What does this fold into?
Amino acid sequence: MITRKSKEQIAIMRRAGRVVAEMHEACVRATVPGATTAEIDKVAREVLDRRGARSNFLGYHGFPAVVCTSPNDVIVHGIPGDVVLEEGDILSLDCGAIIEGWHADAAVTVPVGDVDDESRRLIEVTRRSLDAAVDQVVEGNRLGDIGAAVEAVAVAAGFSVVREYVGHGIGTAMHEEPQVPNYGPPGRGLKLREGLVLAIEPMVNAGGPETRVLDDGWTVVTRDGMRSAHFEHTVAVTPEGPEILTLP
Ligand code: MG
Ligand code: MG
It folds into this structure.
């Protein structure tokens, strides 16, 4: 079922979104050579505690942390642990928060120290693909316009878009209908209307689009071992256009 949210409900989601943005800021500061991904998870937990928010990641199908930490060839769903970050790595940080039962969800990919030009370009293109997708979150547009915008930016840069994992509606659950693919033709699918709130999350690979899940049952990696970047915002359709709810 696809639900549209009232202005009041969106206002609560905006508060959850601010907590997520604050978690990102803290995690990004902690993403330095020599840090472990478990330390980054701890920093995110401290923000949740300080803001009186709950995690929508912790315990989700048994997920053991509040942040997904996905370095280099890990696309999404990396589990924080004793992995030590090294200069030149890239790291996707994906987390969410719940306030008064309402969810927000967002991701960023950041360089660890100084990274090579191709990694920097991968990060920048993925960020731009999300920006282009957000621009499509306008009443009267269709769901397909979002995926088409992501794909156009990624493919023009010589990268590929992951197909097995997609964005989603979000509200009183982290994952609601509809699914929001990062590919496909424009002008098709659900018509966007006021109150629809979507988590849009392009996953862009430097090599091919194929994915594989590691034996831990969570960690999704590129099959060719090349790097992947991931950005996400929770975005509401409003009469004034797209409103990103996961901003500081
Ligand atoms: Mg996310
Ligand atoms: Mg998401």
Observations:
- The chain is about 30% helix and 25% strand.
- The longest strand covers residues 90-99.
- The mean pLDDT is 98.
